[in-house]
């Protein structure tokens, strides 16, 4: 058990970073917000006005409750504070109600909930090995704090687009920190709570399961297994208890498989590349008279919110197929962890691979899910050179893929400035941290990342002025998604490579 | 971390906060019939685009001076003209003569905010970066810290991107002037400052230090010989710049007089609204606004301004170096702010920022508490008086610093 050297006494930089980013978030209160704003307002209204038995049946608004019960309780708690801002937002039929007081309250709730994230980041910094005598800007804890607190993706998804990811990732990072500090029961408890707040974290549940089982249940006494089991089960019991009678309804809300393979804007994953390949083959096939255009099923992929996908040339993909692909993609990592656990560091790497694998192969993945891989990877990035290089590739590509979420003109300068801010900070600070040993990125990677600049210029500035904007409005989105998918896939392969090749636990253990 | 990355992070932080502030409301939003400074700037675009030059500053049927008549020097008018051309390209409705009064829309707001950002990036931010890079003493980290402080200065951001004005242009040009003088390029510095003066007459606050510094420098080089030639060159630069800026108005003697009349509205009285200077604060105790005649008020403010500016200017004249110059800028602008005629609260951008605790407490109470019915203006007046006391303290302190000139001083002060 290596506990890191105690933090230096001067902690004021942490509060400066935290306060600074909070002030920035306050300035963004008036920015564009997406339909997710109305989603959460609706949930405030229905948890406040309706009895518990009705929460998962309510369907006045199209944005039905599709998060697990603990989040519903969270919204219920918020709704009691909302009373003091504007009672009208708690009326269910008030669809799309967005008075200034409502906007203020909802934005403030996200900003205040981020306190959990701040605390978690502080705890994660304790798990790092500190080099004494380094100046502030070169300290791993400072860099990690900057990478997490000022993370571009989190800022624009939470405080412009509108979601509560800061709070949720705070719980996740706190759970990871507890595992690093060998407080495994707390870590397991926090993760169960997290699963009951947002079930998308099922993506990384296998990593938790395998790690905990491997490290504790067979090496130590059965009492540990029993305690862990009790913690997890009781959390689920408390959360789902009141809904035990309506379990099928709740589950159908939580897992709506009727949606299509890809979101309207394709997440930059394997299926985006698959779709493009299918389109390319069909065009080429028709051109070279290998296929008859009349016999091809009409592939409709673009347009609309949720689409059923039918591929022309390649076989169509079903939810079961994606599940199988996802499991296959993460199985080697889980096996490696089972076979030779590398302590907390190996667990973290496996976690990132699970998140990224599910992102790459999952069904109806939203591009925001890339944050689930980027944020934990930050912890690894400040520890090792290779991980820093992978982090840079994944974060820049992943963050760029979030650009289409903010499509308004007013937010354009903000997203460019913030993206540049975060990219320059991460590049410069990681370069300084790993000064010795050459460049973090090889020339090919640098070229790829620089290619994002012309891509942005074309998609955002040049293309809207051309004639094709009317006939093929989704072309820029497709281009962005496909280009980023290449980068994400590359990062996935490199991560796997680093997991499978890193074999020893004795050399340079920074986190145990 | 390398210098360039630190500086670019500062710039990006500054730009982000500027644009984020611009999301919010502007002066006079949704408040007919007069609206506010935003509408004034839009109106000037309309006037300069649609009317011939000789009508810009005059009261004609097409140009009602009571509705936000032009009251800045010609360079502002030319700037508005350029913006108007762009506006016409994007949406002619924004600058339709008469029809566009009170025009408000989301895209128009974006356009106006974008013009502020554009000039900021073009003029102000490079000047700040160059200043911090070349003229700050100390390690590179200190230079970066100075740059960060200047770029994040809330007063300028809130007024330019919130309330809506173009102070970054005049302050930026003045800063280029300071840079020029610092690098020894006196002609360039004079040119830049003259342009700043022709953009906003408020820059007169800084003119005496520029004058005294350059004059002192020439005198030091010997009034017979090099010094005289230098003086002649500087004077020529200034005069030619003035002539170029005022050229369209020199055809008719009535024109420049009318422009000056608009720039210096002595008819408006000693002060308007709540300003943190001597006259407004004094007015709380002695009603000088009504007690004294307007001529006496003018004379009094002139005399006091001169009195407070004299020590600093004389010292600079005798010892024309950069450190004295910077101090003199502070003292001069504070003196003008505190004592001159018709000062607007925004003029304080030219001087310093003040102690947070008292301000925070006062702001807090003025938001949450209702003022007593007998004194409805209690909180704004208290704010003004508190600020005034701070400024008085500053001017005394900085005059002392400049006149006593303690040894080995490193300055990190903002001079604009």
Q: Which descriptors apply to this entry?
A:
heterodimer, A: 512 residues, mainly alpha, 21 helices, disordered N terminus, B: 416 residues, 17 helices, 67% helix
Short description:
With 512 residues, chain A is an all-alpha fold. In chain A, 63% of the residues lie in helices and 0% in strands.
| Count of β-strands of chain A | 0
Look at the helices and sheets of chain A and give the structural class: mainly alpha
**How many distinct domains of chain B?**
1
Order of helices and strands of chain B: HHHHHHHHHHHHHHHHH
Number of helical regions of chain B: 17
Transmembrane segments (chain A): 12-33, 97-121, 142-162, 200-217, 224-244, 313-334, 346-363, 414-434, 446-466, 472-493
Pfam family, one (chain A): Alg6_Alg8
Membrane topology (chain A): Multi-pass membrane protein
Family (chain A): Belongs to the ALG6/ALG8 glucosyltransferase family.
Characterise this structure.
Chain A: InterPro entries: Glyco_trans_ALG6/ALG8 (IPR004856). The complex is a heterodimer of chains A (512) and B (416). Helices cover 63% and strands 0% of the residues of chain A. Chain A has 512 residues and is mainly α. In chain A, α4 runs parallel beside α7, α5 runs antiparallel to α17 and α16 runs antiparallel to α17. Chain A is globular. Chain B is mainly alpha-helical. Chain B has one domain. In chain B, α1 runs parallel beside α6, α4 packs antiparallel against α5 and α14 runs antiparallel to α15. The relative contact order of chain B is 0.09. The interface between A and B is medium-sized, with 21 and 20 residues.
């Amino acid at each position: 058990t290596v506990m890191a050297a105690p933090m230096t006494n001067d902690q004021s930089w942490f509060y400066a970073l935290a306060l600074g980013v909070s002030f920035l978030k306050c300035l963004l209160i008036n920015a564009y917000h997406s339909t997710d704003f109305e989603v959460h307002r609706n949930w405030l209204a229905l948890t406040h006005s309706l009895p518990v038995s009705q929460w998962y049946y309510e369907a006045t608004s199209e944005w039905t409750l599709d998060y697990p019960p603990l989040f519903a309780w969270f919204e219920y708690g918020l709704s009691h504070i909302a009373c003091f801002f504007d009672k009208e937002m708690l009326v269910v039929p008030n669809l799309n109600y967005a008075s200034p007081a409502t906007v203020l309250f909802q934005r403030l709730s996200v900003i205040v909930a981020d306190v959990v994230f701040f605390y978690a980041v502080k705890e994660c910094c304790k798990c790092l090995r500190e080099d004494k005598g380094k100046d502030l800007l070169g300290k791993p804890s400072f860099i990690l704090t900057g990478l997490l607190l000022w993370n571009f993706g989190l800022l624009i998804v939470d405080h412009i687009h509108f979601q509560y990811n800061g709070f949720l990732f705070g719980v996740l990072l706190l759970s990871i920190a507890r595992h690093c500090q060998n407080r495994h029961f707390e870590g397991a408890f926090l993760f169960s709570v997290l699963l009951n707040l947002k079930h998308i974290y099922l993506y990384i549940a296998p990593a938790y399961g395998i790690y905990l089982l491997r490290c504790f249940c067979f090496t130590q006494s059965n009492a540990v297994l029993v305690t862990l089991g009790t913690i997890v089960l009781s959390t689920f019991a408390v959360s789902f208890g009141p809904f035990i009678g309506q379990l099928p309804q709740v589950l159908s809300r939580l897992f709506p498989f009727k949606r299509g393979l890809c979101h309207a804007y394709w997440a930059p994953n394997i299926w985006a590349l698959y779709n493009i390949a299918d389109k390319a083959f069909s065009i080429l096939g028709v051109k070279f008279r290998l296929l008859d255009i009349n016999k091809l099923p009409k592939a409709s992929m673009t347009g609309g919110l949720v689409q059923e996908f039918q591929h022309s040339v390649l076989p169509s993909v079903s939810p079961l197929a994606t599940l199988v692909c996802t499991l296959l993609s993460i199985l080697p990592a889980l096996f490696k962890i089972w076979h030779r656990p590398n302590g907390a560091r190996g667990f973290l790497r496996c976690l990132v691979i699970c998140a990224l694998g599910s992102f790459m192969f999952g069904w109806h993945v939203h591009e925001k899910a890339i944050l689930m891989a980027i944020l934990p990877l930050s912890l690894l990035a400040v520890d090792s050179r290779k991980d820093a290089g992978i982090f840079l590739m994944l974060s820049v590509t992943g963050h760029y893929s979030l650009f289409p979420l903010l499509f308004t003109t007013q937010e354009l300068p903000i997203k460019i400035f913030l993206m540049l801010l975060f990219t320059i900070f991460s590049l410069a600070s990681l370069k300084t941290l790993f000064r010795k040993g050459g460049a973090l990125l090889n020339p090919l990677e640098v070229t790829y990342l620089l290619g994002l600049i012309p891509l942005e210029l074309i998609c955002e500035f040049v293309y809207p002025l051309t004639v094709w904007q009317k006939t093929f409005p989704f072309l820029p989105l497709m281009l962005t998604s496909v280009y980023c998918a290449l980068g994400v896939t590359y990062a996935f392969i490199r991560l796997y490579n680093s997991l499978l090749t890193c074999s020893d636990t004795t050399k340079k253990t920074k986190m145990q | 971390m390398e210098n360039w990355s630190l500086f670019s992070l500062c710039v990006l932080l500054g730009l982000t906060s500027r644009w984020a502030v611009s999301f919010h409301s502007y002066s006079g939003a949704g408040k007919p019939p007069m609206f506010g400074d935003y509408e004034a700037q839009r109106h000037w675009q309309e006037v300069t685009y649609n009317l011939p030059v000789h009508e810009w500053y005059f009261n004609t049927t097409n140009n009602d001076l009571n509705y936000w008549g032009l009251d800045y020097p010609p360079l502002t008018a030319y700037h508005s003209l350029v913006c108007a051309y762009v506006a016409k390209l994007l949406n002619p409705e924004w600058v339709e003569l008469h029809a566009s009064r009170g025009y408000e829309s989301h895209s128009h707001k974006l356009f106006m905010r974008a013009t502020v950002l554009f000039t900021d990036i073009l003029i102000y931010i490079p000047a700040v970066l160059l200043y911090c890079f070349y003229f700050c003493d100390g390690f590179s980290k200190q230079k970066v810290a100075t740059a960060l402080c200047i770029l994040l200065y809330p007063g300028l951001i809130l007024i330019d991107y919130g309330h809506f004005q173009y102070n970054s242009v005049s302050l930026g040009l003045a800063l280029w002037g300071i840079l020029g003088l610092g690098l020894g390029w006196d002609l360039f510095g004079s040119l830049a400052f003259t342009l700043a003066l022709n953009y906003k007459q408020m820059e007169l606050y800084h003119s005496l230090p520029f004058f005294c510094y350059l004059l002192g420098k020439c005198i030091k080089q010997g009034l017979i010989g090099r010094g005289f030639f230098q003086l002649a060159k500087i004077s020529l630069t200034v005069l030619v710049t003035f002539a170029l800026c005022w050229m369209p108005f020199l055809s008719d003697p009535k024109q420049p007089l009318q422009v000056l009349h608009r720039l210096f509205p002595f008819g408006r009285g000693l002060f308007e609204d709540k300003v943190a200077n001597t006259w407004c604060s004094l007015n709380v105790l002695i009603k000088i606004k009504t007690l004294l005649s307007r001529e006496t008020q003018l004379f009094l403010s002139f005399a006091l301004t001169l009195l407070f500016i004299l020590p600093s200017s004389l010292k600079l004249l005798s010892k024309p170096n950069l450190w004295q110059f910077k101090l003199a800028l502070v003292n001069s602008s504070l003196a003008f702010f505190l004592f001159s005629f018709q000062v607007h609260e925004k003029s304080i951008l030219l001087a310093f920022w003040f102690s947070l605790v008292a301000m925070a407490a006062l702001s807090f109470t003025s938001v949450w508490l209702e003022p007593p019915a007998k004194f409805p203006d209690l909180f704004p007046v208290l704010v003004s008086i508190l600020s005034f006391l701070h400024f008085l303290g500053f001017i005394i302190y900085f005059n002392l610093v400049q006149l006593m000139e303690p040894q080995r001083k490193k300055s990190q002060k903002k001079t604009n």
